[in-house]
Amino acid sequence: MRFVLSCSRLRFGLGEIVLVNKMKCKGDTSIESPSENNMISNYFGTSFLTWTQLVDCFMKRKWESDDDAVKIEVLYFVNTFLISMIKTNIISRSYIDLVECGDFNNYPWSIDIYNTTIKSCSNKFQDKPSF
C-alpha cells in the first residue's frame, strides 16, 4: 500500500509488518478444521465464538486446565493485539482450530496481520485520491 503523508510518499507492505513484529511471514496459511473443536464445546457451547465471549472467559479465568488456559490466552492475545477485533465480531473458527491443535507457533501470523491492516485501511482511504 502506498500513500502520501505530509507531502511524503510512504510505502507500507508485508516487509514493514515483519520488521515491526518479527513474526513469520512465509508458509501455509491454510488451517485444517476438524468437525468438532473441544475448546468451543467445553467453554462456549455454541458453534461460534464472539470477541465478548472470549474476553469474558479470559477475564474470569474460566478454564479447567493449564493447557486450556494457554490456549484461551493465546486466542485472546491474537484477537486483541495482533488482529484487533471490534467487540461484536465473531472470532475466526480457523484461529480457534489453530490454537486448539497447538500449531499456532508455526503459523505465518504476519500475513494475516498485513491483510487485516490493508482491509481496515482500504475502507478509510477509499475516497482519498491515489497517485
Core attributes:
131 residues; mainly alpha; two-stranded antiparallel ribbon; 2 strands; elongated
Question: Could you explain how this protein is built, in words?
Answer:
The chain has 131 residues and is mainly α. The chain has one domain (24-125). The chain is 50% helix and 6% strand. It is built from 6 helices and 2 strands, in the order ββαααααα. The chain has helices at residues 14-21, 38-43, 51-59, 66-82, 93-101, 109-125, and strands at residues 2-5, 8-11. It has a two-stranded antiparallel sheet with strand order 1-2. The protein is elongated, with a radius of gyration of 17 Å. The model has no long low-confidence stretch (mean pLDDT 80). This is DUF1985 domain-containing protein. It holds the Pfam family DUF1985.
